[in-house]
Amino acid sequence: MFAAWSKVMRFCAVAGLCLAMLGCPAPDVLLALIVSPDTLDFGVNLNTLSFTVRKIFSERTLPPFAIEANQPWISVNPTTGNSVGPDDPVTVTVTIDRTNLPGGENSGVVTVESPGIVARQVSINVSILLQTQFSVDRTEIFAGETVAFLDETTVAINEKPITSRTWNFGDGTTIVWNITDPVTPGDTDPQRMKPTHTYTQAGLYTVSLTTTTANATDTETKTNLIRVKPTALPTADFSFSPESPLANSPVQFTDLSTAGTAPITGWDWNFDDGSTSTDRNPVHVFTMGGLYQVVLTVTTAHGNASRSRLIVITAIGPTAAFSATPLQGNVLQVFQFTDESTPGTAPIDSWFWNFGDGKTSTGQN
Predict the structure, then answer these.
(1) Which phi and psi angles does 167 have, rounded to 5°?
(2) C-alpha 160, offset from chain centre
(3) How far from the centroid of its chain's Cα atoms is residue 64's Cα?
(4) Beta-strand relationship, 238-241 and 196-198
(5) CA 320, 323, 329, 332 torsion-angle sign
(6) d(CA 122, CA 78)
(7) For FRET with 180, which of 150, 243, 271, 357 sits at 20 to 30 Å CA-CA?
(8) Phi and psi of 116, rounded to 5°?
């Protein structure tokens, strides 16, 4: 026994010398930790298990040990401890947070270590049959807009496939799909993995997805996920120039509209004379004098707005004038009459002469 003890001491001395030469502190080989059990299997249902830590029989003092997990979904209690011997165990409770674990097998490690001695580890195994998860393409919209959803649920390799999905969009609308539902013609998304939903009212909406397999059901709920903002319509307005337009003269119309919560994408003009335009700032010619009610309608993704204005188009008549050659003459002499009239807002298109002797003419000259 003494010879064996001497061999151990020599080994310890040599090991310590080697470590010292390497710049490392020599471990105290006469101290050791015992963990029991060294594997915790939580399966698909368990969330809490425990193991014990104790010091082997030795008269040497054991420094306090620390207990740490290498995964955020593993928590331990306590996180520190000490033991004076085999009959003085420290019970460590391990708790699993399954909330964000993916479907399938998940592994982690809890390490127990104390300065100067060899650390011990406990393997952690957790099985997740079904982990419901989903995402959205955007979380802030205006009323009347659509959100696209995507089912990102994971299922364990050995678990049976998803048999149903239930989407709850938070506004009283749900979509339920079961594997026994027939696929109707034209249904491009029978599995409801990528639904879209249109929110019509402003507010905050909580969305949830529940998935089911033959052996498990899981739900993910995202509180106040979708923020729907109220929409505002555009304000339509316009001006025209000149302020006193004439018939057969160009009138410039200028859009003065302001957008609401969506940009203006269309302009529709009605000039009340049978003519229309989709230009933003059109030019229009009224061929007749009169009172016209011009209407501009602007279009946005959130709605339309219109503005009407009365426009007086003035028609100026021609000014009649003529000359005669000669100014004096004899009976049966020919006189030449020349039209010198000027048009108004429309060209002259007819002439009527009265020569005062009962004779008339409709020629220009």
Answers:
(1) -100, 130
(2) 33
(3) 52
(4) unpaired
(5) negative
(6) 15
(7) 150
(8) 85, 0
